Amino acid sequence: MKFTVSSSTLLSLLATTGKVISNKNTLPILDYFLLELKGSELKVTTSDLETTLMGSIAVENVESEGSIAAPAKLMLDSLKEFPELPLTIDVNDTNWEIRINWKSGSLSIPGASPVSYPAVPTLSAEKKELKFDPETLAGGINKTIFATADDELRPVMNGIYINLSENAATFVGTDAHKLVKYESEGACEAVSSFILPKKPAALLKAVLQKEEKPVETAFDSKNAVFRLSTHTLVCRLIEGNYPNYNAVIPANNPNKVLVDRIELLNGIRRVAVCSNPTTNLIRMDIGGNKIDLTAQDIDFSVSANETIACSYEGQPVTIGFKSTFLVEILSNIETPTVVIELADSTRAGVFKPVYDDKQPSSTLMLLMPMMINA
C-alpha cells in the first residue's frame, strides 16, 4: 500500500474520526485507525464497539492498494507537527511498518494487521430509512444534547429521544431536572422513534457543520446508520422506553415574563457567585415589571441581589431555580428576548425563545423549581 496525500487533509480526517477512540478500550486494536485504500480513495475507520465512524478522502499517486491498522496517538502526534505538504505513505504488508516520507525526511511507525479489527454492525431487514435535512438534525442535537443525563440507573435518559411523526421530527433531552423539546415541522418518511446516545450525537454535531446534502439515515431496533457526504456513522441505540415527557410540561401557565435574555443571564451569573455552593439556589421575585434576583450563603454570610426590568403579565410569583441550570438554558437560546411561563412556585418554569417572524421549528425548555427555605 503506497500513496501520496496532503498532510493537513489527512490530519483533519484522522482528528475527526479519532474522537470515537475511547481512553478505556477493552481491545488493544481499538486504539488504532483502520486505513483501507481502494482506487484513489482512502477510508479511515475508528470504533469503540458501540460507535463506529468512517471517513474518506481522495489520495494521489496510488502505487498499490491495501489495508493496515495504524496507532492513533502516534499518527496524530506525528501529523500535528507538519506544515501543509505532500506526504508519501508506504506500508510494508509483511512486517506492518508504516513509513511516512516527505521532501526533507521520513519517519517510521509500527502498524498492525487489520484482520482483528471489529466488523461494522449491519442493520436487520426490518430497518426503516429516511433522509434528514442536515440543519434539522444539527439543530435538534445542538438544542437538546446539553440537557441529557449521565445516569447509570436510567440509561434511556443518557441520550436524545428522536420521535418521527407524519408532520414533524421531535428531539427531546432531559435529566429529570431540565427538559428540552425541539420540534421541526415537515413530514418524515419513517414514522417511528429511537434514542440516540450522547457520544454519537456529539460526533454527528461535529461532522454536520459542513454538510449540505440530506443525511441518509437508517435504523432498526438496535443500531442506526447516518450517511453523510464524506463520513458514515454507525452506532448502537439505547434500548428502552423513553419517559412520557409531555406529561411534565405544564399546560396552563397564566404568568408570563418577557425579558432580555443577555441581561437576565449576566444578572444570574453575578448573583450566583454568592449562592450556596451545594444548592446553587437563586430566588426570583417576579412582579410589577421587574425580576428581583437574590442569592445567599448563610454559612459564609454572603449575599447578592439584582433587579432586572421585564414585561410581566400575571400575579406576583416567588420561585427558586438552580443557577447552573438557568445559565445552561439561557445560554442555549439564541434569541435576544426570552419568554418565561410560570404557574406557581412548585411547578416547572417553561422557557421559550421569542422570534420576530414565524419559524419552521419550535424550542421549549423546561426547568424544575427548587424549594426556597423561608
DSSP E strands, number: 26
Proportion in β-strands: 35-45%
What distance separates the N and C termini? Answer: 73 Å
Describe the main β-sheet briefly.
9 strands, antiparallel
Radius of gyration: 25 Å
Q: Numbering strands along the chain, what is their spatial order in the largest sheet?
A: 14-11-12-13-26-25-24-18-22
Silhouette: elongated
Q: State the domain count.
A: 3
What does this protein structure show overall?
The chain has 374 residues and is of the alpha+beta class. The chain has 3 domains: 2-116, Roll (DNA Polymerase III, Chain A, domain 2), CATH 3.10.150; 128-247, DNA Polymerase III, Chain A, domain 2 (Roll); 249-367, DNA Polymerase III, subunit A, domain 2 (DNA Polymerase III, Chain A, domain 2, Roll), CATH 3.10.150.10. Helix content is 16%, strand content 43%. It contains 6 helices and 26 strands. The chain has helices spanning 7-17, 72-79, 134-144, 198-207, 261-272, 323-331, and strands at residues 2-6, 32-38, 41-47, 51-58, 60-64, 66-71, 86-92, 97-102, 105-110, 128-132, 159-164, 168-174, 178-185, 192-197, 215-219, 223-227, 231-236, 255-260, 281-287, 290-297, 302-309, 311-313, 317-322, 337-342, 349-353, 361-367. The protein has a 9-stranded antiparallel beta sheet with strand order 14-11-12-13-26-25-24-18-22. Strand 3 (41-47) and strand 4 form a beta hairpin. The protein starts with a strand and ends in a 7-residue tail after the last strand. The model has no long low-confidence stretch (mean pLDDT 93).
